[in-house]
Amino acid sequence: MSDNGCGFPAPGLHSFLFKPIATVGGFEFNKVMLLALITTGLVITFFTLAFGKAKVVPGKLQMVGEAGYDFVRRGIVYETLGKKEGEKYVPLMVSLFFFIWIMNIWSVIPLAQFPVSSIIAFPAVLAAIVYVTWVSLTFKRHGFVGFFKNITGYDKSLGPVLPLVMVIEFFSNLLVRPFTHAVRLFANMFAGHLMLVMFTVASWYLLNSWMIPAAGVSFVMTIAMIGFELFVQAVQAYVFVLLACTYIQGALAEHH
Amino acid sequence: MIANLVQLATESEQNPLMPPGPELLVGTIAFAIVFFFFWKKLLPNINKVLEERRAAIEGGIEEADAMKTEAQSVLEQYKAQLAEARHEAARLRQEAQEQGATLIAEMRAEGQRQREEIIAAGHTQIEADRKAAASALRQDVGKLATDLAGKLVGESLEDHARQSRTIDRFLDELEEKAEAAR
């Protein structure tokens, strides 16, 4: 990667590898795992402070927590699943949203500067949880035959194209969906991190003699990218949860 | 993007789409802790409070509604009472008017009756006086005439006249003539 002659330390896959900071009985504990655990700690600490001693007349922290909670509950879950069906999935969706969001935000936090969700394992785990949830729900709701009708988008009015549609839908829903669900989040954070590293390293690297103006441009781009990434981080957390809700909605839907 | 990643992954030894095992484990644990905290403790906690708040707000609204209903019913009651009172007053006035009219009519009738009585009494009195006067006059005139005639004739005609009642007859004739002339 860095053997292109000019010595520019271009970011690449190696940017996503971390040496273990501790090894416990053959288990290599690295920075990303630490960040993931700190994420858990942060989310729980904040919401314990906000909701631990919740009052009917809320304090400032509780108000902020309620705003976040309400955004996910009303803005995403009730919107897609309705109040009656959705209530059961509120805890899952709320924890998904804040967990993912904080994992993403590490990307722009000094010293951390790495989005946990750009390691595929983390989005994969979350996508797998959502996948298991909606697949088992579909079975429970529609039975074995109903499950396949639901998954394959069975619709007699399609006529001769029906088999083709069924095959496509089957693959799309059952096999591709969890993959895209995880990769959408992963790839956004991965690409975002690459961009940030790119511009940060470049502003440093270009900081000599006549290249200085270019370094300035690169630095401005770094700042701009940080702003953009903050936006993308929130959007990706939102999209992930929205999609999870949509999948569950599909599982609940009566096929016609 | 995905295709590029896959290509990238196949080219190098490090595959960014292959989840490493330890990270999977840590991710699962990290998320599971968050989820259980939210599910078991934090969300029930806040939901209880939100429910209480909703109840408090709705309770306030319900109370206001109840008071409004009560005020409405009291107002209606007052209105009904007022209408009843007006009605009663009108009835009493009507009754008083009727009674007054009857009373006036009665008094008028009484007055009329008394007047007639008085008039009748007066008439009777006058008649009686007239009769008394007439009879007294008749006696006096008879006496005077007899006296006069006696003086003129020179002898008393008293006994004779009383016996023959000539004078009375004469006077009756005079009266009859006067009656006839009227």
UniProtKB/TrEMBL annotation, chain B:
Gene3D superfamilies: F1F0 ATP synthase subunit B, membrane domain. One of its GO terms (molecular function) is proton-transporting ATP synthase activity, rotational mechanism. It comes from the Bacteria. One of its GO terms (cellular component) is proton-transporting ATP synthase complex. Its main location: membrane. It is found in: Cell membrane. Residues 61-102 form a coiled coil. The keyword Glycoprotein does not apply. It is a single-pass membrane protein. Keywords: ATP synthesis, Cell membrane, CF(0), Coiled coil, Hydrogen ion transport, Ion transport, Membrane, Transmembrane, Transmembrane helix, Transport. F(1)F(0) ATP synthase produces ATP from ADP in the presence of a proton or sodium gradient. F-type ATPases consist of two structural domains, F(1) containing the extramembraneous catalytic core and F(0) containing the membrane proton channel, linked together by a central stalk and a peripheral stalk. During catalysis, ATP synthesis in the catalytic domain of F(1) is coupled via a rotary mechanism of the central stalk subunits to proton translocation. Component of the F(0) channel, it forms part of the peripheral stalk, linking F(1) to F(0). Belongs to the ATPase B chain family. This is ATP synthase subunit b. It comes from Streptomyces flaveus.
